[in-house]
Structure prediction request, 265 residues.
Amino acid sequence: MSTLIPVLLAGGEGKRLYPLSSETKPKQFLKLATNKDSLFQASVKRALKVANSSHIITVASAKHAKIVNEQLDAIDKSLKQHVILEPVGKNTAAAIASAAVYSAHNFFDPVLWIIPSDHLIMRSDLLASAVKRSVPVAKSGRIVTFGVSPTRADSNYGYVIAGDESRKYKGIHSVRMFIEKPSGDKLNWCFGQNNSFWNSGMFLMSASTVFSELKEKNRPLLESVCKAHKNSQDSKFGLKLDLKSYEKLENIAIDRLVMENSKRL
Prediction:
């Protein structure tokens, strides 16, 4: 039986929404939507709708280790047992690879739900339902992405062009094209398609699928992540990955490295 493992990506550097957001307290740790929870905490609570607290992984910057632990502790102390601390930010491909390596060592046959930690989602019940429906698809070796209906042509987003609905999995479509942050005529074309969606940055895929894709598309990145885990150190705030190994990683988003060219979507 596969284990569903939500993975919170909380490594933002605080370069947006200045002066509210700062390097020491990026926007995901701010209470922008409500006075009760930060965006990160709201993301954690969405994860708790599909998995128990002992199955949730947080990947964050080592310099935010204390605030991550404080905000997790305010929800459930057991959330702090699976925190991965990156010594330097290397974008989402490295963070997801790190979560995949960690999960493979700590859980049986993990299926990872990748969750950016700075979203505002009003109907989290609908999202939870979509995730649960998608687990069998991810277990079969596919990558599921969750689209958002676009309201404007905006080059700040990637676009997913949906194909036919699956005969086996109701409500789930093949992906015809995945185009990361188009501009100009290509942007207008993407927005004009009836079956186009913004890329939400959320993905559902097994750890073994992550390994297969990275072996094919950037094996050195995966090998360096493995070394960073092998030489990691436990701390009171989480698992500190090895700086020397992590510094060698290419700084690249999973969207560019995998999703634009994957045949598994």
Q: What stands out?
A: The mean pLDDT is 94. The two ends are 22 Å apart (CA to CA). DSSP finds nine helices and ten strands in the chain. The longest strand covers residues 196-206.
